[in-house]
Amino acid sequence: MTKATKEKVLIELGHFFESCLLESSERESISQEGDLKVQIEKGRTLIETVHSYNGWFTPDSIKKSFKGWSIALEEQKVSSWLKSYELDNSNSHKVGVIMAGNIPLVGLHDALCVLLAGHELHAKLSSKDFQLMNLVLEVISILSKEWKEKIIITEQLKTIDTLIATGSDNSARYFEYYFKDKKRLLRKNRTSVGVLDGKESERELEGLADDIFTYFGLGCRNITKVFVPKGYNLDLIFNALFAYKEVGNHNKYANNYDYNKAVYLLNKIELVENGFILLKEDQGLHSPVGVLFYEYYEDLATVEKGLNQSEEELQCIVGNQSFCDTAFGKAQQPELWDYADNVDTLKFLLT
């Protein structure tokens, strides 16, 4: 399978995501083969029904995921991503991928990297994201007969040569032991933070809200803590977050919010809240769902030093400072070359 053919499959996959987001009248005007057209209709149905299997996967969340993938898999971006890789790999292995299920299609990037590198994908799908990932793997199988032969959905990974696994710190220790004789790429708990200096525009603060609330804050690229200068007016953050007030009506989110609020109040911990998010002054990085940690700072150099020391806990640092790697509003809009944990997955699989 040539590099150009692989690129074409990815671009067509992007068109699939785009088609799933079109209205029925618009979809009728698109010329698609029978099997693929069936999958598009199935994707459209899943957008509206998957929340019955996983309450976190609302139609809006799935649409955001599909939209993100349709943009990421545009022709120019696919070409830019793959131009520096030599994909003619004749040394094929069985690569097991244990996928997370915290946000829709979070395991797709790993799956694509395995197939692009010429390996056999042994995918252990998360029960939380089984329907969507299974659908997309079926679409890939339609787009490429060669990749179809390399996609195996399984519960057992006893015969694999290499492992890619995403999970908690505890599960990573288990994977480290159980697959100690295999080549491994293990990912642990990570989160993202925002660094504010008080000069942010209204639009940038709206982007901060997106980075906090997209997918209900369940992703490792979601901001769970903000650093603000001493004396900063927290109302500026609250005003930006107000656009997401409807999250308070989501059952699972509201349960987390109410639980955390009750625990903090019982422990007489001081909070700032607005009915759908709790702001808690805390030196930690990982805040629970419904809570945003904040910390005042005297100078940015101290913040930078502290974040460097916490590098292995961080996925993104959002802000306008030189040591920040992500712009406001872009944390949940990664490009294909924005690898998890800053480890080049495709390079790992090609060596």
List the helices and strands and how they pair.
Elements: H1 3-20, H2 24-28, H3 34-49, H4 59-72, H5 75-82, E1 94-98, H6 108-116, E2 120-124, H7 130-143, H8 145-148, E3 151-153, E4 162-166, H9 169-178, E5 183-187, E6 191-195, H10 202-213, E7 223-229, H11 235-241, H12 251-266, E8 272-273, E9 278-281, E10 291-297, H13 300-309, E11 314-319, H14 345-350
Parallel strand pairs: 1-2, 1-4, 2-3, 4-5, 6-7, 6-11, 7-10, 9-10
Antiparallel strand pairs: 8-9
Helix pairs in contact: 1-3, 1-4, 1-5, 1-7, 3-4, 3-7, 10-11
Describe what you observe in this structure.
- This protein is an alpha/beta fold and 351 residues long.
- The protein folds into two domains: 3-189, Aldehyde Dehydrogenase, Chain A, domain 1 (3-Layer(aba) Sandwich); 191-319, Aldehyde Dehydrogenase, Chain A, domain 2, CATH 3.40.309.
- Helices cover 42% and strands 15% of the residues.
- The protein contains 14 helices and eleven strands.
- The strands form two sheets. Strands 8-9-10-7-6-11 form a six-stranded mixed sheet, sandwiched between helices. Strands 3-2-1-4-5 form a five-stranded parallel sheet, sandwiched between helices.
- The longest helix has 18 residues, at 3-20.
- It is globular and about 60 Å long.
- The mean pLDDT is 95.
